[in-house]
Amino acid sequence: MTHAIRFEKIGGPEVLTLQDIDLPPPGAHEARVRHTAIGVNFIDIYHRTGLYKLPLPAGLGMEAAGVVESIGPQVTRVAPGDRVAYASAPVGAYSEAANIAATRLVKLPDGVTDDIAAASLLKGLTAHYLLRRTYAVKKGDHILFHAAAGGVGMLAVQWARSLGAVVIATVGSHEKVPFAQNLGAAHVIVSRTENIAGRVREITGGKGVPVVYDSIGRDTFMASLDSLAPLGLFVSFGNASGPLPPFDASILAQKGSLYFTRPTLANYVSTPAELDAAAAELFDVIARGAVRVRPPKKFSLAQAADAHRAIESRQTTGSLVLVPD
Ligand code: NDP
Predict the structure, then answer these.
(1) What is the pLDDT of residues 35-56, one digit of tens each?
(2) Which residue is closest in CA terms to ligand 1's atom 10?
(3) Region of residue 63 (phi > 0: left; psi between -120 and 50: alpha; otherwise: beta)
(4) What's the pTM?
(5) How far is the CA of 176 from the centre of ligand 1 (A)?
(6) What is the C-alpha to C-alpha distance for residues 158 and 180, in angstroms, rounded to an integer?
(7) Does ligand 1 lie within 6 Å of residue 149's CB atom?
(8) With a 6 A CB cut-off, is 169 part of the ligand 1 pocket?
(9) What's the gap in Å between 312 CA and the centre of ligand 1?
(10) Residue ranges of the chain with pLDDT lower than 50?
């Protein structure tokens, strides 16, 4: 038996309950990971609210760090006692332990604590593919990054800055402005009170930016489109304010022959080689201090609902983790 957060129907944070579940021995290609820190990600909210549908009843969570307790007979990638982390489906990381395909595990370097790993693996792998692969950020690029003070934003702004980009960041409130500035954002726009596209045009001398990273979705869709330079790339990677409205592709022509992509992490780390290469780059920028991961705000596993309330309220900065009792 192990404790896990489960939910039987979609809804508010109150649908989350701590339950006893059976955990079978790991399968032939799996490792049993005893969790020490569990990442809270906005996708967990989409799962809980039904924006992304799961067969119910379901567990929750896609990211954790901990120690390998036992392995299936075919596993060679990790061994009992290894410190590891993962950031992938299937959901169920909000639990004391889980059986995970060994190919999805990354070994943690000594310099990365379990808390830091749970605070940064999923979000850091996301920042990696966004900045290095979806659009390869170059020295001198002006880029627009929304929700810059959030979990992904905290890592991405610093990483983009270290690549030489001039980061134009958005945050939801004035209180978050200093946080985004400390990450290295050159310009910070308060999205709830300022005209985002107007400010971006002003900052870029009317040109607009070559890339917008938009995880807010519905509320920022038009502002993001209007911030792009001709041939610019709209990277729509989340929907914190709700999904995008259906749109007519001709709007991309009208706004300057724009490109649009809707990427997701799983496609960028679909093989162990891709996962290892991306994780190595992430651990390298952390080790060099180019990306500093602020210690995450901690909640007990049983308080998962409170962690959800906090992140949905737009009050949080950086990452949140759950810690099993
Ligand atoms: P965050 O810590 O960034 O929290 C979400 C942030 O979104 C809030 O802090 C808030 O910042 C902003 N926001 C804007 N509008 C709303 C709203 N109506 N309700 C709530 N929040 C709002 O979360 P994560 O770091 O976990 O994830 C960031 C985004 O990246 C999410 O949209 C997530 O889905 C996406 N993501 C996508 C991945 C992919 O591969 N496609 C992988 C990982 C994450 P503010 O108030 O400052 O605007």
Answers:
(1) 999 999 999 999 999 999 999 9
(2) 314
(3) beta
(4) 0.98
(5) 14
(6) 9
(7) yes
(8) no
(9) 9
(10) none
